[in-house]
């Protein structure tokens, strides 16, 4: 067979021959001629070659095989969709409900829209992979998710308003990325959220709806560009243990409502633009172990003496 005969081959014969290759090797041959390229880009061929490639694979293969990772993250939609669907079937067979991708090298690769087909899992971790681009809105259709960890990547753009659809989410971790823009009001829809970890990004505003997260125990927003006044609604978070807001652009006074968070153990407001009187109510927080207020323009009530108030856990 020579290159002159390739354009004349029946479509089914092309499918039959090339489907015995791995998807990666098959797509490398798209340049043979335009007809081959057209055939190999069809959904029908994607189904044939992917099914043959994945036939008989077990969970260890799917989790550790780099070819499978490329199939999901780097291939066009028919391939990535089939890979995701097959992964769900195999993992369900073994009752695995957690999916972790970490320490991969996915430079210049964005999370594919095919992520929407990972509907079986309640735990999704894709961290330390150099994942880039914006988060696809399809991600937020995974309503079973309880844990979403996309930390330590190079994800850009805003946090989509659709995040509010993840109503079963208990942990959202997007730390150490390059995300920006406002934290959306819809974050308040995540009523089951226990941990919200968004530190080391470039977010700009914190909505009043943050106060709707009544189960929240940890709020990590340090090292962003969040400005404006601290929302007084933070005072509704009576389960909050960790409140880390340091290295931002918050300004104005600390709302007294925040100083009444009875479960608070660690509060860090350092390196902001806060000013005014430190609420005396902080001293009534018997769980409080450390409160860092350094790098602001705050002062204590001058009418109180050190006998009246215990400042041992307060850094100014």
What does this structure look like?
- This protein is α/β, with parallel strands linked by helices and 316 residues long.
- The protein contains seven helices and 18 strands.
- It has helices at 11-18, 23-28, 34-40, 43-54, 59-64, 66-73, 77-93, and strands spanning 98-102, 123-127, 132-133, 147-149, 154-157, 171-173, 178-181, 195-197, 202-203, 218-220, 227-229, 242-244, 249-252, 266-268, 273-277, 290-292, 297-299, 314-315.
- The protein has a ten-stranded parallel beta sheet with strand order 1-2-4-6-8-10-12-14-16-18, with no helix packed on it. It has a four-stranded parallel beta sheet with strand order 3-5-7-9, with no helix packed on it. A four-stranded parallel beta sheet has the order 11-13-15-17, with no helix packed on it.
- The N and C termini lie far apart (81 Å).
- The model is unreliable at 58-64 and 305-311 (pLDDT under 50).
- Keywords: Cell membrane, Leucine-rich repeat, Membrane, Repeat, Signal.
- This is L domain-like protein.
- Residues 3-48 form the F-box domain.
- It is found in: Cell membrane.
Strand-helix topology:
Layout lengths: L10 H8 L4 H6 L5 H7 L2 H12 L4 H6 L1 H8 L3 H17 L4 E5 L20 E5 L4 E2 L13 E3 L4 E4 L13 E3 L4 E4 L13 E3 L4 E2 L14 E3 L6 E3 L12 E3 L4 E4 L13 E3 L4 E5 L12 E3 L4 E3 L14 E2 L1
Helix pairs in contact: 4-7, 6-7
């Amino acid at each position: 067979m020579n290159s002159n005969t390739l354009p004349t081959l029946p479509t089914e014969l092309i499918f039959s021959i090339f489907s015995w290759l791995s998807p990666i090797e098959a797509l490398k041959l798209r340049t043979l001629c335009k007809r081959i390229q057209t055939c190999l880009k069809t959904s029908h061929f994607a189904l044939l070659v992917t099914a043959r490639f994945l036939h008989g694979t077990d969970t260890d293969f799917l989790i550790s095989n780099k070819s499978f990772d490329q199939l999901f993250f780097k291939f066009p939609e028919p391939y990535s969709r089939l890979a995701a669907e097959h992964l769900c079937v195999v993992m369900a067979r073994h009752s695995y409900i957690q999916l972790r991708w970490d320490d991969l090298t996915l430079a210049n690769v964005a999370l594919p829209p095919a992520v929407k087909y990972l509907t079986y899992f309640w735990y999704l971790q894709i961290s330390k992979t150099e994942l880039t681009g914006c988060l696809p809105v399809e991600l937020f259709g995974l309503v079973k998710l309880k844990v979403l960890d996309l930390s330590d990547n190079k994800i850009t753009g805003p946090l989509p308003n659709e995040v509010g659809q993840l109503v079963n989410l208990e942990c959202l971790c997007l730390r150490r990325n390059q995300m920006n823009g406002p934290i959306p009001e819809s974050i308040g829809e995540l009523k089951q959220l226990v941990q919200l970890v968004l530190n080391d990004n470039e977010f700009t505003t914190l909505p009043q709806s943050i106060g709707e997260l009544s189960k929240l125990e940890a709020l990590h927003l340090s090292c962003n560009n969040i400005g404006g006044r601290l929302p007084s609604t933070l005072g509704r978070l009576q389960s909050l243990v960790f409140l880390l807001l340091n290295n931002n652009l918050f300004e104005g006074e600390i709302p007294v409502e925040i100083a009444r968070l009875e479960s608070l153990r660690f509060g860090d407001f350092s390196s902001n633009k806060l000013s005014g009187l430190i609420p005396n109510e902080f001293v009534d927080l018997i769980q409080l172990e450390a409160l860092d207020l350094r790098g602001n323009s705050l002062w204590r009530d001058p009418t109180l003496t050190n006998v009246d108030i215990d400042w041992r856990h307060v850094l100014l």
